[in-house]
Write a structure and sequence with these properties.
- The complex is a heterodimer of chains A (about 400) and B (about 280).
- Chain A has a 4-stranded mixed β-sheet.
- Chain A has 2 domains: about 260 residues, no CATH class; about 120 residues, 3-Layer(aba) Sandwich (D-Maltodextrin-Binding Protein, domain 2).
- Chain A is built from 15 helices and 4 strands.
- Chain A has about 400 residues and is α/β, with parallel strands linked by helices.
- With about 280 residues, chain B is an alpha/beta fold.
- Chain B has 2 domains: about 180 residues, Rossmann fold (3-Layer(aba) Sandwich), CATH 3.40.50.300; about 35 residues, no CATH class.
- Chain B is built from 11 helices and 10 strands.
- In chain B, a hairpin with a 2-residue loop joins β1 and β2.
- In chain B, α3 packs across α4, α3 runs parallel beside α5 and α4 crosses α5.
- Classes of the chains: A alpha/beta (about 400), B alpha/beta (about 280).
- The interface between A and B is medium-sized, with 26 and 30 residues.
Chain lengths: ~400, ~280
């Protein structure tokens, strides 16, 4: 069989797998719609929802209990603040004999929703210091909200008291409170907005890409290998004149296409969200050279080759979809952990060997490239090592396709 | 009938400690329709899988002969058409797409495979359903589509693994009729079945397998005369009666093996049928 007919076989297999796969509407949903809409949804809908929830929480009228050993006129500033911030307060005199640390009764009141939060406030006339604590329930939204409002009002009050005391002493408030301050210049950071964006994205995108690559390849890999075994379609295919390696390459090409499309759509969604929905904010598209972009695509591709080949090999060893899923699920951790780990490695002065560690190398490469930094030795090491690992993974997958028990299915 | 097409020489195939095929030697002539008969687990499917190269023998070899030259399966695969036990159709593809996919992998032009498919699909009364997705197909329609898929590339030898299993009477008859048509056209077919009467209707040679062994290889008449029986069913029962074999084995058992068997096989005692 000549090279062109081998190539033709690979394309025939790949073409059939893609047609078979995309005819399922659930696939289209998972591969096209979800990746495309994920980031625009997160960037656009999520802030709206969060803001609306925040507004709703801030508009709540909350009951609080204030216990103090002072007359209410002494804390008028606080009480005005409570009223302005929709906090309905009830003032109780603090018994001088009370154990200040005993909050059991207050807790009971909060648990029974009698009030959202309690402020205990005492004044020491010897030291002229106000001491306070707030009792609240962090697991209740209304109590947490009351705590936040009281804290903010207390902070304002403290600021006000400080200013008042400083001016009563005839001192310069600015000189006392702000003795060291930076010059107000237009820009101290010499990094451009694009470079800053690249720096931020170098922590986000490699992580996402590795997770997407690993997860989006799982389902098609299982479907085209263990799925075929389970459905009994593999036997007739193995009887055809195409070799097992052609079969592997055809299926691998199809899965890689699906993973590639999925990643491309997610990146498109991300770029769209940043360029249009987040324009004018701190997030801007990163400034990248053409070489960086091309090398980034190479990094994603070799990582994809390795991941897909491994997933297909593992799936091919399994007799059923369920078995493949139960193995591949926990296996994801071997892609996620390096992805998370690579975020903590300092890129400046990074040792060369990191660029040869499986999975970590590609993730570090992506980080460097997103910062528009290209070091020849780094690129050489990660390309050579990644191709080596991808080759090993493909070899291992091809060994699985040679197994005799492939024709046995549980169906 | 002319020339040798396929030769199976002293083939043994085992899976772990289980011998699926034991020292099997069979020659297949061109133009023959051979019935491979045996009960479940006799080794029929293993034998067919060996012929199409899905299994490799532990010992012995399978040789194909084309134009007088012997070759192994890898170079002969294009000439084989297989209908496996499970039809193996892709449910999201139409019947024709399933057939075309396999034909393309055999390097056959779409027009040629379409013409062949159309011809045989009429014989099987499925020509109206070729463009339908196979998801909604009945067992019979799936079997017929798989048969068309096996035929579309014009194989020299057709391996059919229980082609009428689960089919209604009409569909089974159509399948048998097609096999006879292929026989008339000089095609070679290996027809695996556990139905003796079906083998009698279609095949001109019967191979009986039992526990991975070849128990008989010859014509229907030879089978009756060799076993001294009046029906194929009696002949089959006589050939596959393993009581004598087990009796010999048990009698040869040592003390340890016998005790082991009695403990771990819940003290099974064999009841042997008396020879008539």
């Amino acid at each position: 069989m000549n090279l062109s007919s081998k190539f033709k076989n690979i394309l025939t297999i790949s073409n059939k797998e893609l047609v078979d796969y995309i005819r399922d509407w659930r696939t289209l949903l998972a591969v096209v719609l979800v990746p495309l809409l994920m980031f625009p949804t997160i960037f656009f809908v999520l802030p709206i929802v969060l803001q609306s929830e925040l507004d709703e929480r801030q508009s709540l009228h909350l009951d609080i209990r204030v216990e103090t050993n002072q007359d209410s006129s002494e804390i008028q500033f606080l009480l005005d603040g409570f009223s302005e911030n929709l906090l309905n307060y009830s003032i109780f005199e603090l018994d001088e004999n009370i154990n200040i640390n005993d909050t059991s009764m207050l807790m009971e009141g909060i648990k029974n929703l009698n009030y959202s939060s309690v402020l205990r406030l005492t004044y020491d006339s010897n030291t002229t210091i106000w001491e306070y604590y707030i009792v609240y329930d962090s697991t209740k939204e209304s109590s947490g909200e009351a705590y936040l409002r009281i804290s903010k009002i207390l902070s304002d009050w403290e600021e006000n008291l400080t200013s008042e005391r400083i001016s009563n002493e005839g001192l310069n408030e600015e000189a006392i409170l702000n003795p060291v301050k930076p010059w107000e210049i237009s820009q101290g950071d010499i990094a451009t907005a694009g470079e800053q964006a690249g720096f931020v994205f170098s922590f986000i995108i490699p992580l996402f890409v590795s997770i997407w690559t690993a997860t989006s390849g799982v389902q098609p890999s299982i479907d085209m290998t263990a799925g075929e075994r389970e459905r009994g379609t593999l036997e007739s295919l193995l009887c055809s004149p195409c070799t097992r390696f052609e079969l592997l390459l055809g299926k691998w090409l199809a899965v890689t296409c699906i993973v590639g499309v999925s990643i491309f759509l997610q990146l498109t969604g991300l770029v769209f969200a940043i360029s249009f929905l987040m324009s004018g904010t701190f997030l801007e598209p990163p400034e990248l050279s053409l070489t960086s972009i091309l090398l980034f695509l190479v990094a994603v591709s070799v990582f994809g080759i390795m991941v897909v080949a491994l997933e297909m090999a593992v799936s091919m060893r399994s007799r059923s979809v369920k078995e493949a899923g139960s193995i591949l699920g926990p296996m994801m951790i071997f892609f996620f952990l390096p992805a998370i780990f690579a975020q903590f490695i300092n890129l400046e002065g990074v040792e060369l060997f990191w660029f040869a560690v499986p999975a970590v190398n590609v993730l570090l490469a992506m980080r460097e490239l997103l910062q528009n930094e290209i070091y020849f030795m780094h690129v050489l090491v990660w390309i050579v090592s990644s191709l080596f690992y991808a080759g090993c993974a493909t070899w291992y997958a091809s060994r699985q396709f040679l197994r005799e028990d492939l024709v046995e299915s549980i169906s | 009938m002319s020339g040798l097409l396929l030769s199976v020489k002293n083939v043994t195939k085992s899976f772990g400690k289980i011998n699926a095929l034991e020292n099997l030697s069979i020659d297949i002539q061109k133009g023959a329709v051979i019935g491979l008969v045996g009960s479940n687990g006799a080794g029929k499917t293993t034998f067919l899988r060996l012929l199409c190269g899905l299994y490799r023998p532990n010992s012995g070899n399978v040789v194909f002969i084309k134009d007088g030259i012997e070759d192994d399966i890898e170079k002969f695969r294009k000439s084989i058409g297989v209908l496996p036990e499970s039809t193996g159709l892709y449910h999201r593809l139409t019947a024709w797409e399933n057939i075309r996919y396999h034909s393309r992998l055999h390097g056959i032009d779409d027009t040629i495979s379409w013409n062949r498919t159309l011809r045989f699909s009429k014989a099987l009364s499925i020509n109206e359903d070729l463009m339908r997705h196979t998801r909604g197909f009945s067992r019979g329609m799936r079997q017929k589509t798989a048969l068309l898929r096996a035929l579309a590339h014009g194989p020299e030898i057709l391996l059919l693994d229980e082609p009428t299993a689960g089919l209604d009477v009409t569909s089974a008859r159509l399948v048998r009729k097609l096999v006879l048509q292929l026989k008339e056209e000089g095609g070679t077919v290996i027809y695996s079945t556990h139905n003796l009467s079906e083998a009698e209707k279609v095949c001109d040679r019967i191979i009986i397998m039992h526990n991975g062994q070849l128990r008989f290889d010859g014509t229907n008449e030879d089978l009756l005369s060799e076993t001294d029986t009046k029906s194929l069913e009696d002949a089959y029962v006589k050939l596959t009666n393993d009581d004598a074999r087990i009796k010999d084995k048990v009698e040869q058992e040592g003390w340890f093996a016998k005790t082991w068997r009695q403990i771990f096989t819940r003290n099974i005692e064999y009841a042997f049928q008396e020879d008539e």
